[in-house]
Automatic annotation (TrEMBL), chain B:
GO cellular component labels: ATP-binding cassette (ABC) transporter complex
Swiss-Prot/TrEMBL keywords: Cell membrane, Membrane, Transmembrane, Transmembrane helix, Transport
Domain ABC transmembrane type-1: 29-230
The protein, known as: ABC transporter permease subunit
Primary location group: membrane
SUPFAM superfamilies cross-referenced by the UniProt entry: MetI-like
Species of provenance: Craterilacuibacter sinensis
Source organism superkingdom: Bacteria
Amino acid sequence: MSSMISINNVNKWYGDFQVLTDCSTSVSKGEVVVVCGPSGSGKSTLIKCVNALEPFQKGDIIVDGISVGDPKTNLPKLRSRVGMVFQHFELFPHLTIVENLAIAQTKVLGRSKEEAEAKGIKLLERVGLKAHAHKHPGQLSGGQQQRVAIARALAMDPICMLFDEPTSALDPEMINEVLDVMTELAKEGMTMMCVTHEMGFARRVADRVIFMDRGHIVEDCSKDDFFGTPRSERAQQFLSKILQH
Amino acid sequence: MNYNWDWNIFFKSTGIGNEIYLDWYITGLGWTLALALAAWLVALLLGGLLGVMRTLPNKWLSGIATCYVELFRNVPLLVQLFIWYFVVPDYLPESVQIWFKQDLNPAVSAYISVVVCLGLFTAARVCEQVRTGIQALPKGQSNAAQAVGFTVAQSYRYVLLPQAFRVVIPPLTSEFLNVFKNSSVASLIGLMEILAQAKQTAEFSANIFEAFTLATLIYFTLNMSIMKVMSIVEKRVRIPGLMVEGGK
Ligand SMILES: Nc1ncnc2c1ncn2[C@@H]1O[C@H](COP(=O)(O)OP(=O)(O)O)[C@@H](O)[C@H]1O
Ligand SMILES: [Mg+2]
């Protein structure tokens, strides 16, 4: 399988504080990789390095053959091909739902307004929110907003998707509606890198699990190995804590 | 005290041509409006630009904007006016100097000085409001804007500024009101705006209380109408479903 995202010895500092230390891993085309680990371990930072929302000082990240750290890389163009979903949704509150889905299609990809809105509506139908097309984000529940955020990313026809704790800001009863959309995406063969603590989702959907601790990638193994015999003590502790409830 | 109250004074002849005192106030109102609107336009455009610059990661651009703000905010307005009116013209190229000092109607050259002075002074204050408005937005918004492929300029144009604009309407409204009040400094270099007209009315008619009461009423009415208009604007652009500031 060819590699979609390849992370090679990435190091990142905030001032004197090293957030990421020698992180290396890769995500193949069509693969679903779950990233987990305690809060503050650097998961968000790592995933934001993949589409250069965060710069890193050492190492290299290659996305679909393009080096993210290369100063000559056209980052907006690269980012437009990598979908990203955030913990707090980050829909554009001043735009309607369908405008949220259409704006980058028209301004970045140069699609016509009609084409972009038609595509937006189709994706809204897919995530079950067509009826809300002309509302504003603030008028939707958290779960609905996150489904719109996924649709917004999909509207750009991404080559892969990054998720940063997409369900951890949601009320429990809304988590599944979002996980269902993600599961469906994974089944369709989307390449996905998901920071999440939803171990049920990881068990069902992931191909591989990465466990991070204090800026290091401590475990990087197949799902079965991870849930069967995680090798590090930290990972075992983490799992027992998270699986308790 | 022997004071002759006379509220009809405004309808009496000034003794100059067939003008009544009210005509003076109308002329004054015209100058005040012309000053405040032009200075506000300068302040809004320049201040908006500087405010954006202060939020950019580029050290040079944000540094320039910071210096501007510190300079223009910390020198008293009157000092700035005297510099623009008495000092700066002497350092202009000779042809511009002659034009400014001799060819122009003195009222017009005073007008230009006040507009430049008040515009640049208020720009520093607008800059700070715009900067605060942008920085008050959740950090995730600029991340999200860039994640969908927007350039920095597009992020500002389509995501950050439309939201910041709504946040800064109330503080900008009070800056706009300040521009009207501050425009009265023009009276010190002889421009016959409302305050100057009131002073002149007081001197000519000896009805000093009435003269300044009317000026006060005009400023008050102007301010109230602006506040009314701005609160309508604020309601019109309010984002549906979004909590009011301070809520959440
Ligand atoms: N902008 C920043 N400046 C300084 N330190 C930061 C910044 N962002 C994150 N950190 C620190 O980096 C570490 C990793 O953060 P993060 O990647 O958000 O962790 P996670 O997503 O795993 O909870 C944390 O210790 C956090 O405090
Ligand atoms: Mg995080």
